Structures
1.
Amino acid sequence: MAYEKLELLIDGEFRAGSQGVSEPVYNPATGEVLAEVPHASSDDLDKALAANARVSKEWAQKTPLERQKVIEAAARNLEARFDEIAENLTIEMGKPLAEAKIELQMGIDIARWYGEEGKRVYGRLVASRIPGMTQSVIKSPVGPVIAFVAWNFPCVNVVRKVFGALAAGCPITIKPSEETPGTAIAIGRALTDAGLPAGALNIVFGKPAEVSEHLIKSPIPRKLSFTGSVPVGMHLQKLAADNLIKCTMELGGHSPMMVFDDFDAEKAAEIAVGSKFRNAGQVCVSPTRIMVQESVQDKFVDSFVKRVEAMKVSSGLEDGVNMGPLVGERRLDVMDQFVNDATSNGAELLAGGNRLNKPGYFYAPTVLNNVPKSAMIMNEEPFGPVAPIFTFTDVDEVIDEANRLEFGLAAYAFTHNPAIIEKLSNNVESGMLAINSIVVSTPETPFGGIKHSGYGSEGGIEGLEAFLVTRFISEVH
Ligand code: NAD
């Protein structure tokens, strides 16, 4: 099948960069070059911003219903190319096709949800203390948005920003990852074919630091939305401060998964394996510190390892595959570092711990048991298929450990004990907490972190709110 034609989208036109610079995009399952992604020159970036500025008022003044119609048409365009886009996503990112389809469907659902919710941006009337005065609180689009996103969800990361901004009445310029550009371009085509006005969405690529610096220094953007690592998020926030650009930061995580002894340990292991190795562990909300209450450790670990050993690791396009490659060669070295550091600190290696001897960037699903807290993997985000397991004795100890790091994205707990659930709900420092499930992301609920995992939410009414400003109008009749 053909890979998406890689182009920039600037002011309604799909085209190459004006300086002819590009970089290769690789298929991580084979290491082969798929295509070249064009870089936007400074001139291209200025044109993109100028187009956003030009169309900003027109898009903001459309009725929410008019915007929803464009969004709905784009959702249908994505559905019409569903299989093709899902396959493209697998080819450029590596995740199994079944996961790519789930991601694309989730993207379409999020797009539709934002389109519909845009109709429900309400204000309020506040009783005045001055006779004859009406006081209205209204919500207005914040203005042009710039966004930068990671490669691990080439569809959903883009959709959350693009459709959130558009539904709220804001134009947007997005720089998706240069590693996974095809899915973003397919989304851009779905929107332009749906009748989105030229300039309401620009898609640019280039050297990330140069693109972001150029866009942030312009006086045009009013909002920055970023999905990526903590250090890059901190850097972008500093740059944004110079123009007082509002930010939403969806940053890294190091999610604790807490398995209590009243919960079926084998069931917990089944859920943990499915969630840990989804997208080869390259998920910001991936369970990373797997903590099991002492009395069920052996049962949990045995079941976990058996399931890991039964996993099929191969190209995401093959039937029955459970895990694909990592996104790039550089990630393989990082996994080796995490594993070697843990074992030299005393952890037991129960499965994996090596790259697979075949083309592409495959790493064996890896299980480390009794990992000490001093190990690198217990402190830094591994973002890969390595599962560190260790034990705890009681709820207070596990909460202390869950809160030990500066990350605060997602947390998971498996227990039916109401007192423990209440304690966890009140004390675990995370933006999202799932009890007896791994569901933390739906179109209609807020997704986001606290502490160094960032701030602001995507999804839910909070996700739309992120692209709005609150204004107060008083009027004497
Ligand atoms: P990264 O921060 O290095 O890169 C993320 C994206 O930002 C990429 O597209 C990259 O090209 C771009 N980027 C890098 N430097 C930039 C700069 N100076 N200016 C603008 N853009 C820049 O992160 P990564 O390692 O590629 O991605 C994984 C990280 O993303 C993990 O930490 C993961 O947890 C996080 N993530 C968070 C969420 C969330 O919603 N909280 C979702 C997905 C990924």
2.
Amino acid sequence: MKPIIFIMPGQEALGESLLAGGGFEKGVLELRQFPDGESYIRVLSDVADTQIIILCQLHQPNEKILPLLLLVGTLRDLGVHSIGLVAPYLAYMRQDKRFHEGEGVSAQYFARLLSQQFDWLLTVDPHLHRIHALNEVYSIPSIALSAVQPIAQWLSGQVSKPIIIGPDGESEQWASKVALAAGCPFEVLSKERFGDREVRVSVPHVADFLDHTPVLVDDIISTGHTMMQAAAHLRESGMRAPVCIGVHGIFAAGSLAQMRAAGLQVVTTNSIADPSNQIDLAPLILEGLQQFLQ
Ligand code: R5P
């Protein structure tokens, strides 16, 4: 019997891409809200003894997590063989330490919650910074795929003479690998954050690369301030407007429109469905899934 993929709302495009290869069946599900806002779940596929994959976009996770957990409970009751979670964007990874007294380390608690429910987890470029590997917080088999190759492939077809720029120290892990895969130079800037919406970025040393197309690469674009500050400094240094690539386009509070209004070309993977999606993660995820399926 083929494994069944249940596609949660918001991840339809990526889900259809995964199904296009023919290796999976599409799970049929009725998911709606009662008038009081509680979720109604009904599984319409025959799932007994089947390997289940749930594809769920965990951007803005609070509203998605409860229907997800209700689905897991329903599937377990229906006697499935196993349930894996494909969450191309893994939420809550940035609150990875107690920054101020009394704060919760949400990355740990969220990992504990998911580990209790699923048999395995597959994600793409989770924000691994102070947590170095998923298995430091997830107790189930977990794979963190990297979007480096799909990004490098996109670059080779779309951008001439790129120089990859990491907008802050944390982005070096993506910027350096994308540059290596794309065979081009890279620079990493340094960033100081003064609050949720205030960041200051150092001036880069790019005098030798003024004839290149700057490509800012980061894992997450949220308010867009990191990218916009970096872009402003590149311009001050005489570079042209950069292409901004984020693995995960969260785009808090209309930031995509602001970035575009600032003359930036913004490109993301389809980990979170968005008009800026240009890089398809389906081939990468299909390859990664082979490690979990029998
Ligand atoms: C930092 O921890 C991440 O790697 C990104 O640099 C950050 O999330 C981007 O946030 P924003 O778009 O709000 O500046």
